[in-house]
Design a protein that fits this description.
Ala_racemase/Decarboxylase_C (chains A, B), EC 4.1.1.17 (chains A, B), alpha/beta, TIM Barrel, PLP-binding_barrel (chains A, B), 10 helices, eight-stranded parallel beta sheet, lyase (chains A, B), eight-stranded mixed beta sheet, 380 residues, Lyase, Ornithine Decarboxylase, Chain A, domain 1, Orn/DAP/Arg_de-COase (chains A, B), 18 strands, homodimer, 24% strand
């Protein structure tokens, strides 16, 4: 929560423009976060994960600051280019790409692609001849609040074959990537993956293929309710692990922060629509907001991300509440298994401020589920 | 799957308009479904649940057929009115409403509102004086594939007080509603709720308040992989339960089908983007489509809804596959806990047809998660 955001919201309310939940993103915080990454990992190039928040103002600021961009689709590539990034600062980081989308990215000048299997290598070889590829490896996501599945990446012992296949098909076998899990709270989690990466580097070197780059992925956390370590702590832990496994031959490195870059730059203002009990002897209150899983807070799925919530009543005593969204969908409940403590004095019509919502909110919004519009967003 | 849908898709492909996943809805099926409901429950008014699919063509057809509309928001009310429904055929069925939205609905002519607590009654009394209200009761959702939580409704023994409160505040205490759970496969599930409803009718009659209406909710299933009973079977079971609990004084009734009205009227065509294995000794293939949880198939959440999938390779032997969507989000996996049997010969680039997708697909689509556009929709 920043003074600039609070000032913006106050002004919006005074103008009578206050017509539903909205996200406000403070670019000053994004700038500070970029500089913190650049300082904590000075020899690492930053590829901002566009999917976290593709607002043009955010991308333009980061392009100006010198950031590169990790893109999940051709649309995101176009957004990064429109924000001023040259195509050599763009990575097509999705391992699942239509061949015609690879061709479109190649035509736009993109030369760096993620792969995790032979079939994807073959698509890239056909549609983006001579491009650089990095192979994504599976990685244990223990310690992450938004866990990764086996969806992306191959087993580390399969990676050499995939990269050798790329090499044979005329691509540049450029490096490896992994992802330790979004909102990863343990800075030491990069160690195991880097050990595996160093093994793949050695194995391919023995076959005459010299990899150049390790993509350290994202996973850098933003502050929600629990304290997280500083970016500096992460940078130090990663550098130590690089030294441990690569010795004096530390490769080129890339990071792909998304949540860590914009999460704490944004705050959502929402409204209490209803407070009720289900029966007279019910101990839990239900508090319904005008924002829920389908218009911005999708990451409350399985109650994984627990956002800090501020109200004007925070000096008062609290009681555990079930917190739910406004739609007629029964899964549109934010916190129920672990009820959320809210002020007993909270009233229908009150505003609530939901912090740490700069990442993974706007783009998750449904186009119009139950007729509710997507989350509005303002970048200041 | 209908011939008209297949013909439309063939034509679209021949015209080269085939640029991503799309839903095609056949209005002939919607018409048949409406007529089946009208026939199975001849004394019951149909309030189509707009949230299931608010396409203008669907709403217009249903308005012409005489349907009423269950709306979750002011936007949905406006959609129903734009499709030709008079406001006396509209119910504002969401129990969670901003007071200013109740006032807007009232100004548009809506006179029927759902409530489930005193606070909501008070909002309706202020913003829609004299309107009819029905009180939603909690109902056990056993047997439903899309389970209902305690989010909507109050305990049946609280309902008389809520309706009495409405009566005292000058509203018309009109009736009760409940919802037996979406995709409810047991036609006898209405019995217990109707028993409770009859009890509330009696209790309020003793206090001089005569309720008129029971809103039987939705829950009518559409055919996915498992066989479901006919609408007629549901109608018979409901009528028997009404007779059992209300005797000769059967109240006015309403149903709110959504999935049962449009689910089997729609089919999605999608494309296989990638097929891979995670390691050489992996037994499971991963099959990635260009549609996933964030651009149409949100109801695969927790693998709850299991859609029938057709391919051109269906004569060939099958093997269990993990089925996933195209985004860089690890939760964008459709079926993994229970892998989906797909033809061994299935290839990258092949089209797949996903049946039963007329309901709860388009409006769940994210505005642009990972840069992927929302699901396209065609109504024919």
């Amino acid at each position: 929560m920043t003074d600039r955001i609070l000032e913006f919201l106050r002004h919006r309310r005074e103008k009578g423009l206050d017509s539903g939940p909205c996200l406000v993103v403070d670019l000053d915080v994004v700038r500070d976060n970029y500089n913190a990454f650049a300082k904590a990992l000075p020899d690492t190039r930053v590829f901002y994960a566009v999917k976290a928040n593709p607002a043009l103002e955010v991308l333009s600021l980061l392009a100006d600051l010198g950031s590169c961009f990790d893109c999940a689709s051709v649309v995101e590539i176009e957004q990064a280019l429109a924000a001023g990034a040259a195509p050599d600062r763009v990575s097509f980081g999705n391992t699942i790409k239509k061949e015609r989308d690879i061709a479109r990215a190649f035509a736009l000048g993109v030369r760096l692609f993620a792969v995790d299997c032979d079939a994807e290598v073959e698509k890239v070889a056909r549609a983006a001849p001579g491009a650089k590829v990095f192979c994504r490896m599976l990685c244990d996501g223990v310690g992450a609040e938004w866990p990764l599945s086996r969806k992306f990446g191959c087993a580390p012992d399969m990676a050499p074959r995939v990269l050798e296949h790329a090499h044979r098909l005329g691509l540049e076998a450029y490096g490896l990537s992994f992802h330790v899990g979004s909102q990863q709270r343990n800075p030491r989690m990069w160690n195991g993956a880097l050990k595996a990466a160093a093994g793949v580097f050695r194995e391919l070197a023995e076959r005459g293929i010299v990899l150049q780059m390790v993509n350290l992925g994202g996973g850098f956390p933003t502050r929600y309710l629990k304290r997280v370590s500083s970016v500096r702590t992460y940078g130090d832990a990663i550098f130590r692990a690089l030294r441990r496994h690569f010795g004096n031959q530390i490769p080129e490195t890339i990071i792909e922060p998304g949540r860590g870059m914009v999460g704490d730059a944004g705050m959502i203002e929402a409204e209490v629509v209803l407070i009720s009990k289900k029966s007279d002897d019910d101990e839990l209150k239900w508090v319904y907001l005008d924002i829920g899983k389908f218009n911005g807070l999708a990451e409350t799925m399985d109650e994984m991300i627990r956002y800090p919530i501020r109200t004007d009543y925070d000096a008062d005593p609290r009681e555990p509440c079930v917190l739910a969204g406004p739609t007629c969908d029964s899964v549109d409940v934010l916190y129920e298994k672990e009820p959320y403590p809210l002020p007993i004095s909270l009233e229908i019509g009150a505003k609530v401020l939901i912090e740490g919502t700069g990442a993974y909110t706007t783009t998750y919004s449904a186009v119009g589920f139950n007729g509710f519009p997507p989350l509005q967003s303002f970048v200041i």
